[in-house]
Write the structure tokens for this entry.
Amino acid sequence: MPTSLVTGGAGFIGSHVAQEVLDLGHKVIVLDDLSGGFTSNTPKSAKFIHGSILDHDLLSELFKEHQFDYVYHLGAYAAEGLSHFIKRYNYQNNVIGSINLINESVKHNIKCFVFTSSIAVYGSQIPPMSEDMIPQPEDPYGIAKYSIEQELKVTKEQFGLNYVIFRPHNVYGERQNIGDKYRNVIGIFMNQIMRNQPLTIFGNGKQTRAFSYIKDVAPYIARSTKNIDTWNQIFNIGSDENYTLNHLAKEVGRAMNSKFTIKYLKERNEVLHAHSSHEKFKKFFSPSKETSLYEGLNRMAKWALKSGPMKSSEFSNIEIEKGLPEGW
Ligand SMILES: NC(=O)c1ccc[n+]([C@@H]2O[C@H](COP(=O)([O-])OP(=O)(O)OC[C@H]3O[C@@H](n4cnc5c(N)ncnc54)[C@H](O)[C@@H]3O)[C@@H](O)[C@H]2O)c1
């Protein structure tokens, strides 16, 4: 039975990936510092370790003890917009933490290291973004993701560590932390509706995004270790359908069966149109038909209404207050 480490497995995507990896018949160890996740998310059959990827002594012990075959690295602080204001935290968690894992993976001859990068590496190039475009990230989060992509490439060349890189975008679904006011617009909207607050949109709401339902993402991340044709490659992953935030707000209101108002806030510094091409992904993974936004929102809304609203927590250690967007 192969053994896999899933970092961030108490988080949203990581908990789904951990379940999918268990379903493949692996033994799964989840490592999560619970800075953004919840133990209740972690599948019961996985072994949960509370700890940080910044703790390299802990990583060294874990790698020695478990002799992992695969590492699925999803642990990160992923608030892209906030990353301008928490640069040090962003680079520590998302670069140094990842490097700690890569070091151990090399030392312990891991067969394949699966990394969730992001569409953020593309910056504001003309969509659809495709894997052959040269990344031009425009925020610290995207820079951190791109630097780890490059690290994995040079580590493969120097030490032979195999990798698969995914660049997901706007993933949503059950178990998302809807109380994080800094990220995940669908979760933010659902939480606002349940708290009888107006839905907040930065700018005029005409920016476009493609929203990817979790079940169209997690199974393929999990299965990528099975097919060595996908190793040492980069894949965009997620939905092809893109929508304005104004349209999304209406759809979320419909799925939540609720009336709502929109409060437009001053636009923030963000990429206006972000969607990507999935031709390469389709060629290698032959995915099932994607879940429509209508259906995905219905499923998430059902879960959110059952779980109830969440209190939005403040990020306690903002490093630069200058220009922090309204409402943060
Ligand atoms: N959700 C998206 O739309 C999206 C899009 C592109 C990429 N990603 C990437 O996918 C991964 C998962 O994102 P998510 O949306 O599930 O976020 P999430 O916040 O729900 O999950 C991340 C998990 O990582 C954990 N974590 C953070 N720092 C850690 C550390 N130092 N040590 C151990 N654990 C740590 C958190 O506690 C959390 O449980 C991230 O790498 C993110 O950058 C997400």
The chain has two domains: 3-171+212-237, 172-210+241-272+289-307. The CA atoms of residues 123 and 137 lie 4 Å apart. Residues 172-210+241-272+289-307 form a domain with the UDP-galactose 4-epimerase; domain 1 fold (CATH 3.90.25.10). The mean pLDDT is 96.
